[in-house]
Amino acid sequence: MVEYRIDRHSGVATYVQIVQQTKQALRLGLLEPGDRLPTAREVVEATAINPNTVLKAYRELEREGLVEARRGLGTFVRRSLGATPADSPLRTELEEWALRARAAGLERDDVSALFTAVLDKHFQGDPS
């Protein structure tokens, strides 16, 4: 089950953070079709956010066709995203690269900017 981490200082709306983290879990194969998302109550207890915020995020995921609410049962994953499992060799290489970047003295924002620049270069015009 996914555990949401809310960054109150990020400037990103809380419900958007939940949507993004759910999509990331779907892309990494941490959530698969049939898996149940945490209930709004469970998310509220873990993060101290408003239950309506959780419900708004889940409605957005439902609107995108990624999850479905089943009355009295919860919210379940309908489909996955991407094809890169959490144990992918590419992830291992990226983790090693991140360690080298940190050892070289790069800050998180530096690494993010560098990675984004490389993504933009190689995925230019990519619809996804």
UniProtKB/TrEMBL annotation:
<feature type="domain" description="HTH gntR-type">
    <location>
        <begin position="12"/>
        <end position="80"/>
    </location>
</feature>
<dbReference type="InterPro" id="IPR036388">
    <property type="entry name" value="WH-like_DNA-bd_sf"/>
</dbReference>
<keyword id="KW-0238">DNA-binding</keyword>
<dbReference type="InterPro" id="IPR036390">
    <property type="entry name" value="WH_DNA-bd_sf"/>
</dbReference>
<protein>
    <submittedName>
        <fullName>GntR family transcriptional regulator</fullName>
    </submittedName>
</protein>
<dbReference type="Pfam" id="PF00392">
    <property type="entry name" value="GntR"/>
</dbReference>
<dbReference type="InterPro" id="IPR000524">
    <property type="entry name" value="Tscrpt_reg_HTH_GntR"/>
</dbReference>
<keyword id="KW-0804">Transcription</keyword>
<keyword id="KW-0805">Transcription regulation</keyword>
